[in-house]
């Protein structure tokens, strides 16, 4: 049993705002888990949640100022987006990314394009999150709502069906994604990223890849190349560079 499985549910807000029987997500869906935690984070902000607007742009360009004109982000990966108005002028945009329709599935760190695009377009608060780290995710959603100006949070959402793994491993795979620095957790407040979960010795990328059958075609040479890319990107983040 995961060492966090026993006490995490006891420390999260008790009330449920996203009921399992009210959605059609698959068992072990990372998006459903991420949305559940997001709603818990904003449980005292019901007036904001009532005006939240969902976008699931599978076949049309991504909306809003974040990706407008950003070809490399908008054409291959179209995640589910939740937009929450904060004060009538600014908003919080949350991307629940299950890598559903990526043209060529790869665990490389191309996802850094989304937060980087948000920073480049002047979002006041930008962060990455994963439901496998619920307290980190909840804190970032709250900071995103409290921040002045627009905010953007990119949430990795493991998908048992699309990634081809057993549903009970959703949380573990999310943790491995972070521990291997495939999906590092950080926030950008003043232009420079700050790691919120830092692993001085990261987990080998190979361990993350082998948990998912979608990567069965990867050869050793490809995995080593990915490891080198991940190491380079993580070192930059540790140095405060995006």
Compose a concise summary of this entry.
With 242 residues, the protein is α/β, with parallel strands linked by helices.
Strand order of the largest sheet: 1-2-3-5-4-6-7
Q: Secondary-structure element sequence?
A: HHHEHEEHEHEHHEEHH
- For the termini, the CA-CA separation is 35 Å
Oligomer: single chain
Q: Which short descriptors sum up this protein?
A:
single chain; 242 residues; alpha/beta; 7-stranded mixed sheet; 10 helices; globular
Describe the 3D structure:
This protein has a seven-stranded mixed sheet with strand order 1-2-3-5-4-6-7, with helices on both faces. It has one domain (20-238). It has helices at 8-11, 30-41, 46-50, 71-74, 113-120, 134-146, 160-163, 170-179, 205-209, 220-238; strands at 53-55, 80-85, 91-97, 125-129, 151-156, 185-188, 193-197. Helix 6 links the parallel strand 4 (125-129) and strand 5 (151-156). Helices cover 35% and strands 15% of the residues. With 242 residues, the chain is of the alpha/beta class. Mean pLDDT is 79; it is low at 57-77. The protein starts with 7 loop residues before the first helix and ends with a helix.
List the helices and strands and how they pair.
Elements: H1 8-11, H2 30-41, H3 46-50, E1 53-55, H4 71-74, E2 80-85, E3 91-97, H5 113-120, E4 125-129, H6 134-146, E5 151-156, H7 160-163, H8 170-179, E6 185-188, E7 193-197, H9 205-209, H10 220-238
Parallel strand pairs: 3-5, 4-5
Antiparallel strand pairs: 1-2, 2-3, 4-6, 6-7
């Amino acid at each position: 049993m995961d060492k966090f499985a026993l006490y995490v549910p006891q420390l999260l807000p008790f009330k449920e705002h996203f009921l399992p029987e009210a959605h059609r997500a698959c068992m072990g869906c990372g998006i459903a888990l991420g949305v559940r935690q997001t709603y818990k984070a904003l449980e005292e902000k019901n007036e904001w949640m009532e005006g939240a607007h969902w976008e699931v742009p599978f076949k049309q360009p991504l909306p809003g100022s974040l990706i407008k004109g950003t070809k490399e982000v908008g054409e291959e990966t179209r995640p589910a987006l939740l937009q929450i108005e904060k004060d009538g002028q600014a908003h919080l945009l949350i991307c629940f990314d299950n890598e559903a329709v990526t043209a060529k599935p790869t665990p490389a760190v191309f996802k850094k394009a989304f937060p980087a695009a948000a920073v480049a377009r002047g979002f006041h608060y930008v962060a990455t999150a994963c439901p496998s780290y619920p307290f980190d995710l909840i804190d970032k959603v709250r900071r995103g709502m409290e921040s002045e100006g627009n905010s953007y949070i990119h949430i990795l959402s493991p998908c048992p069906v699309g990634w081809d793994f057993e549903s009970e491993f959703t949380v573990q795979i999310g943790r491995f994604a972070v521990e291997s620095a495939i999906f590092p957790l950080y926030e950008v407040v003043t232009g420079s990223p700050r790691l919120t979960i830092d692993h001085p010795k990261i987990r080998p990328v190979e361990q993350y890849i082998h948990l998912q059958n979608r990567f069965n075609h990867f050869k050793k040479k490809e995995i080593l190349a990915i490891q080198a890319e991940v190491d380079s990107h993580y070192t930059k983040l540790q140095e405060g560079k995006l």
